[in-house]
Every structure is written in structure tokens, then in C-alpha cells.
DNA sequence: CTTGCGACCCATGAGGGTAA
DNA sequence: TTACCCTCATGGGTCGCAAG
């Protein structure tokens, strides 16, 4: 047994043992409690040295506050690249804490937060009674981020959020429409909304872009629609028309010629007058409100057209992108058409199309094998 | 009473930036 | 490259108000 070089253990008058070491500022630090045996004291020293070496020394007095208190303080003081959280993000985090994290874990002191209790919490949240996998993943990531800070602050030794893949979102498969369904939809809506549905399907414009569209943005001779602005609906603020967030959002999209006639009819009948006039307005001339449009125009039309339950206007965008991919659009062309700054989304549509093509080829081969009838019974 | 509308809320979908 | 964190848009619901 070699002699210890780091820290000492001494016997106190009471007969118990005290472990101490000198920290790098020269201050002598004692163990939070005494030990019954000398060996226990040395064990504590060894553990503490390991933790110090790996930068994970935990102040035994720290981490006693409930998770709720720490988490709320975290949201208030969190800095991202030197700046506080954006208002919307802070609001979202507070809602996630209040609704999904605090009810189960809020009263647990930070240092008592175990991986097992996090697992149990996440299991319930992502289960059938929970709000859904995507929300569960978001809440898990928030909790993990908070705990990462706590580890950095030496309040806890390890991050109890250690579930592999729990933070990854698996967004549900969106329904894919057939051409017949899209046509049925166009026929199902009132005449006033026909052009909007057509434009959404065949150009892939977002609802916010469509509702901000003005006459001057539609060039029916050239067959293009220019996306210059979008409606920004922020809770607690006036609705405003602003430029799309990214430069890629501003774009001119070619309109398939077969819907030009419908657009001409629409402009002549429903759009506000003047170059600045909004193209799509409600029966009383007001701009489109997303919520009302979804529940009062889209929902009944989607049902009448026999679209799968849970279909959204936004799915038309995916349909338009897939059709474009099917007709040979390059990644760059798809990005432009959809107003994406990164190729990731465009690649998804192309991949989906390739998979569909491969599945079709496989089905044809299978059908051929079957009709041969030569395989053994 | 019904209908249209707007404010607000929570849930979900999509994408950017970046450190590992 | 990719996982992670952050940001913001859309979806869909409730509620209250006011006009018809």
C-alpha cells in the first residue's frame, strides 16, 4: 500500500475521523461529515479527487432547491449566444414546464432527480395518455438542457436525462393526396376559395403567404406569383405583414398554366381593387384569419372531398412538392419553389418519390412472379 | 338563436445554427 | 455529419362579442 499524497485523514477527539484536502486556491476543505473509520475517510478523499479531476465536484450544500424553482430561474436567466431567450421561446418553455414537467417532477430537489424518475416521467409523457411523441421529445430536451446547466454549475454530478433518442422528434407521416382528391377539394370549396386552394396545391405557397398576396404579386401573363411578404400572427401583438424571415422565402414561383383561368376569374370577382389589393379576402372584405379559414372553410371542404381525417391545408404544399419531384424537379428547383433555404426538405420529397417508385417497381415484379404460377405450393 | 369574427391558448410541424 | 438547442410558423380548439 503506497502512501497517500493527496489529502489527509485524522482522528478527532471524539474518536471519529475527519478527511481533508487542500484545494487549488490553497484553502483547506473538510469532508461534510466525519467517518467512523479511517478507511471511510480515505474512500471519500478518493471519490472527491476523481470528481475534481473530471470537473464534476459537487458542492454538497447545492442542488437542494426543487426542480421547479431552478427551472423557472433557468428560463429567466438562460443566455443563448450572450442573449436571453426570445420572448416566444421563453413563453413556450414556461408552458412546457407548467403543463408537462412541473406536475410530475417540479417538487423533486434537483440533486434527487434520478435517471429512473426521468425515465418514468418520459414514459408516461410519451405514452398513449400523453400529449404526443413530438411534445414529449421537446419537453425532454428542455429538461435535459436545464439539467446540463445544473451539471455545468456543479449542482449535480450527472445529467439524469440519459434516454437515448428521447429528444428526437418523430413527426407523424403526413397524408398524401391523389390528384382526384385535390380536384374534389377544389370542387368542394365555395367559388371564393377555389383559386386559393388551386394556388396552394400547384405552387406550394404557405397559408401566411397566400393571405398576404396582393394583386401586384400575381403576373398572370408571365404565369408567376411573387412571394414578397407573409402574415405574421404573434400572440398578443397586432397582426402584421412582414417580409419572410429568410431571403429564400422571397421568390417568384411559376404557376401551372391550367389554373390561370381560375385565377383570372378570381381576380375579377373577389379580390380587393387596386394593385395593392389583397387577392384573398373573406366575404366581408377582411383578410384571411388562419383559424377561421381552417375550421370553417378547410375542414368542411376536406370532409366533403373525402380527404383523410386530419388533413391540413399545409399538406397541399407537400402534395405540390411531390408532384414537382415526380416531374423531375431538381433539388435546387424544389428549394426555390418552396422557399426553403436548406435542401433538407426538398430532399425529403425527392426521397419519398424515389421510394414510391421503388415500391412500384417491386410490386410489378411481385405481380409478375405471382402470375407465372411456377413457384412451389 | 345563429353566424361571423377576433383574441387567446396549447399542441404540433418545420427549419436554422452550431458544437461535438 | 449529426444531435442538440433554439426559433418561429401552422393547426385546431375555446371563448366572448356583436350583428343579423
TrEMBL record:
Keywords: DNA integration, DNA recombination, DNA-binding
GO biological processes: DNA integration; DNA recombination
Core-binding (CB) domain mapped to chain residues: 65-151
Ranges for domain Tyr recombinase: 172-362
This protein's record includes keyword DNA-binding: yes
Single GO MF descriptor: DNA binding
InterPro entries, alphabetized: CB, DNA_brk_join_enz, Integrase-like_cat_sf, Integrase_catalytic, Integrase_recombinase_N, Integrase_SAM-like_N, Phage_L5_Integrase_N, Tyrosine_recombinase_XerCD
Protein name: Site-specific recombinase XerC
Organism: Blastococcus aggregatus
Amino acid at each position: 500500500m503506497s502512501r497517500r499524497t493527496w489529502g489527509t485523514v485524522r482522528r478527532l477527539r471524539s474518536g471519529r475521523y475527519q478527511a481533508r484536502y487542500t484545494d487549488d486556491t490553497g484553502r483547506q476543505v473538510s469532508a461534510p461529515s466525519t467517518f467512523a473509520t479511517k478507511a471511510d475517510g480515505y474512500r471519500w478523499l478518493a471519490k472527491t479527487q476523481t470528481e475534481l479531476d473530471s470537473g464534476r465536484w459537487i458542492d454538497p450544500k447545492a442542488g437542494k432547491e426543487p426542480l421547479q424553482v431552478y427551472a423557472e430561474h433557468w428560463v429567466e436567466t438562460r443566455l443563448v449566444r450572450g442573449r436571453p431567450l426570445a420572448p416566444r421561446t421563453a413563453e413556450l418553455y414556461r408552458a412546457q414546464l407548467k403543463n408537462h414537467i412541473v406536475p410530475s417532477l417540479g417538487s423533486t430537489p434537483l440533486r434527487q432527480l434520478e435517471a429512473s424518475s426521468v425515465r418514468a416521467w418520459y414514459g408516461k409523457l410519451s405514452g398513449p395518455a400523453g400529449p404526443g411523441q413530438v411534445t414529449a421529445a421537446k419537453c425532454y430536451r428542455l429538461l435535459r438542457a436545464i439539467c446540463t446547466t445544473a451539471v455545468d454549475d456543479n449542482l449535480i454530478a450527472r445529467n439524469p436525462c440519459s434516454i437515448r433518442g428521447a429528444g428526437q422528434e418523430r413527426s407523424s407521416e403526413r397524408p398524401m393526396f391523389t390528384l382526384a382528391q385535390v380536384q374534389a377539394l377544389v370542387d368542394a370549396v365555395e367559388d371564393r376559395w377555389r383559386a386559393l386552394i388551386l394556388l396552394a396545391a400547384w405552387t406550394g405557397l404557405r397559408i401566411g403567404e397566400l393571405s398576404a398576396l396582393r394583386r401586384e404579386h400575381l403576373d398572370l401573363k408571365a404565369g408567376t406569383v411573387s412571394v414578397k411578404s407573409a402574415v405574421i400572427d404573434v400572440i398578443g401583438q397586432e397582426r402584421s405583414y412582414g417580409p419572410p424571415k429568410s431571403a429564400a422565402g422571397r421568390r417568384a414561383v411559376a404557376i401551372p398554366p391550367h389554373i390561370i383561368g381560375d385565377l383570372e376569374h378570381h381576380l375579377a370577382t373577389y379580390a380587393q381593387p387596386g394593385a395593392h389589393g389583397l387577392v384573398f379576402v373573406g366575404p366581408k372584405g377582411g383578410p384571411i384569419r388562419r383559424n377561421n379559414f381552417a375550421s370553417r372553410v378547410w375542414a368542411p371542404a376536406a370532409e366533403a372531398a373525402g380527404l383523410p381525417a386530419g388533413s391540413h391545408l399545409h399538406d397541399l404544399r407537400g402534395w405540390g412538392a411531390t408532384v414537382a419531384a415526380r416531374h423531375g424537379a431538381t433539388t435546387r428547383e424544389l428549394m426555390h419553389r418552396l422557399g426553403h433555404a436548406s435542401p433538407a426538405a426538398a430532399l425529403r420529397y425527392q426521397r419519398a418519390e424515389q421510394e414510391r417508385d421503388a415500391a412500384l417497381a417491386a410490386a410489378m415484379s411481385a405481380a409478375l412472379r405471382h402470375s407465372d404460377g411456377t413457384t412451389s405450393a
